[in-house]
Structure formats: structure tokens, C-alpha cells
Amino acid sequence: MTATDLTTSTATAAHIETTERYAAHNYHPLPVVLAEGDGAWVIDVDGRRFLDCLAGYSALNFGHSNERLVAVAREQLGRLTLTSRAFYNDQLGDFAEALCRLTGKDMILPMNSGAEAVETAIKVSRKWGYEVKGVPAGQASIVTMEGNFHGRTTTIVSFSDDEVATSGYAPFTSGFRRAAYGDIDAVAAAIDDTTVAVLFEPIQGEGGVVMPPEGFLRDLRALCTERNVLMVADEIQSGLARSGKTFACDHEDVVPDIYIMGKALGGGIYPVSAIAADHAIMDVITPGSHGSTFGGNPLAAAIGTEVVAMLEEGTFQARAVEIGALIEAGFRPLVGQGLLGVRVRGAWAGIDIDPALMTGRQMSERLMDRGILAKDTHGSTVRFAPPLVASDDDIAGLVTAVTEILAAG
Ligand SMILES: Cc1ncc(COP(=O)(O)O)c(C=O)c1O
């Protein structure tokens, strides 16, 4: 069977049926059942090959089954996987040191999922607000951005403006205000004496790879410093080489007060997340004030240390830039030829399809039929985030597929 064979096989249908019957319907996956992955490519239960242009929402920046990461994980699996933080383990110290070196911060606080790391940043910011800044008890506020996506916990969806993500989940956590993304005056107006942090994505991934105007991050840095408010960058999706730099904030040479990291920190193998900050902030955390059974476990730490080592070599960041140049050159001419907009930063792209032509979902389905997996967002947008091990030919194939699908209408 080839990637262009549209027939749903018995095996595919059976897996989908069982999944839909027993797993809650909180996603609407494309009808493909994956069984293997290697580098930028995945194989389904019928042996069809697909170029993975979602890469686990950038958790797979280093590719599927990355040899170095799998070797480290296997080694650690055979030695020790979990201690809890009731005891020390022989991996966490080295991981924390490596991640501090990468971020330039004094300390990290390890967690598992991205949402937990965001929750951690919120808690640390509030505690810093009360204990260091002197905000009156119970009054801390955090400014967030319109169109944000920071995860799915009750507190995090409390400041989401996505109807689907919030509907039915009230009552929400108070203490958040939204400002228009990329509008420094709106952010300034939202800050008052109770404000402890501005929480933002340097690039809004789920929003459709949306970038703030040039200079916004620098202005935000200056504003946060001036108003004694923590600048909290959610680099869970934008960080760790995806945008062509280690962190998306690096594009404007900006260093936030707190980095939030996840996804690729676990190499697509295991959930690993963390926040990083200096002592002046992180020292508000004391024994018992926050924690997680799995956070900082030796398996996570071993994988995370190797991820940092790979990032320190700089090759993935450089490859993201090369991939980005190919995507830009291929997609830009399509504006006016079926695309209303194209946004590219490193190996990360969002395309806005003319809704008169097709939806983002339809584009994703047609790409799937041509052996390419991608994900739509917000109706007519599709984002592409291939693993950073994708070849030039892989990217050429992506550009050809999008071009031909648009031409066919
Ligand atoms: C910017 C950002 N923050 C937080 C999250 C939540 O991460 P997780 O799904 O691991 O909880 C995501 C997930 O897509 C994200 O893109």
C-alpha cells in the first residue's frame, strides 16, 4: 500500500474503532494509525510512510527514535527510573546544572508536562510577588496575552480566550488579565501595583505560529524591569531550537526572568518540563511548598541532560534556520495563489489558507493522502513543524504537496 492509497484498511479501522470506543473524544485525529517512527518519518499499521510535519507539537525536534536519546534512555531504564524527591538521585544534579548553563539561570524546578511547568511559573511568580515585591496578600495579578495557549489545567484555561477550551469548566481561577498580543501599550495599561508577572509565548504556536511585531520582546523586557514585574516566557513550544535559536526570545536578545520549558526537553521520549530562574525568584520555593512525584526523576533527568548537550552543539538550531529558508522560499510565492498569509520562523510555519478554497482540516487530510502529516488550527490555518532532522528533499516534498493541493483547489 502506498501513501496515496486512500483506502482505510481493516487494521487502521480496527485501531480507530477501539480508540474511539474506549478513549475520551478530546481530540479529532486524522484517520491514520502510526506504529513506527525514525527521524522525520513515521510508518502506519499498513506500512505507509509519512513525513511528520507536526513532530509531536515540537516535542520531537530531534526526530523520532533519535539514536543518542534512545541510547541514554535505555541505559537509564536499566539502572534507575524513579526515586521521588524524598531522596536524591545521581542524575538530577547534572541535569539541573546543564539546564542552568543553557538558560543562564541559577536554578531550575523540574516538572513533567508543559502545563505543570506553567502552573509552577504562576505559583512562583505569585509567591515572589507576595514575599519579595510586597503585593498585599491574595491580590496578585498576572497579565496574559490574547490568543494564548499555555495548557489545559483549570487555572490555565482560566485565562484562555478559546471558547472550546473553556466552555463548561467554570468557575475559573481569578487573578489574570489579558492584553492584546504584541501590543506593548495594552500590556503596560494592564499592569498595576498588584501585577507580579507578564506571561507570554514569544511565538504563539497553537495560535497559528503568530509572531509579535519586531521589538515587542525588547519593549516587554524594558517594561517588566521598569514596573518590577516578572517577564515569564513560555518557551515550551517555541524553545529548544525550533525557531532557529535555542530560545525564541534570543531573536531579540532578550532574557526573561523565568523560562518555561517542556516538550523537546524530553526528546519526544518522556514528559520532561522545567522552569528556570535566578535565586532572587526561585528562593521563594521552600520544602513542601511545591512538588511532583515524577518531577526530576532520574530517567527524565538523564534524557534532559542529553537534550541539553545536543542543544549546546548548535547544529539543530542551524538546521532549523536552513529548513526555514526552504519553507519560506517555497511558501511565500503561494500568497495570493490560495494562501492569504505565511509566517515562518526557523523550522516553524503557519499558513492561512483562503477559506473559499478549503479548511485547514481539508488541507491536512489532503496532505495525509500525499504522505505528509500536519495539523490545522483555528479553521483555515495549518502549521508545519518538521523534526529538525528533515532533509532538503523532505521539505521540497512538503512544498510541492502544498503547492499542488492549492492549485487543485
Ligand atoms: C506554549 C505552550 N505552553 C504549554 C503547553 C502545554 O504543554 P503540555 O501539553 O505538555 O501540558 C503547550 C502545548 O502545546 C504549549 O504549546
From TrEMBL:
Entry-linked Pfam families: Aminotran_3 (PF00202)
Under the heading Gene3D superfamilies, the entry gives: Aspartate Aminotransferase, domain 1, Type I PLP-dependent aspartate aminotransferase-like (Major domain)
Domain of life per record:
Bacteria
Protein's pathway:
Amino-acid biosynthesis; L-proline biosynthesis; L-glutamate 5-semialdehyde from L-ornithine: step 1/1
What family does the entry list?
Belongs to the class-III pyridoxal-phosphate-dependent aminotransferase family.
What NCBIfam families does the entry give? Orn_aminotrans (TIGR01885)
Its name, as the record gives it, is: ornithine aminotransferase
Q: Which organism is it from?
A: Nocardioides alpinus
Which gene codes for it? rocD
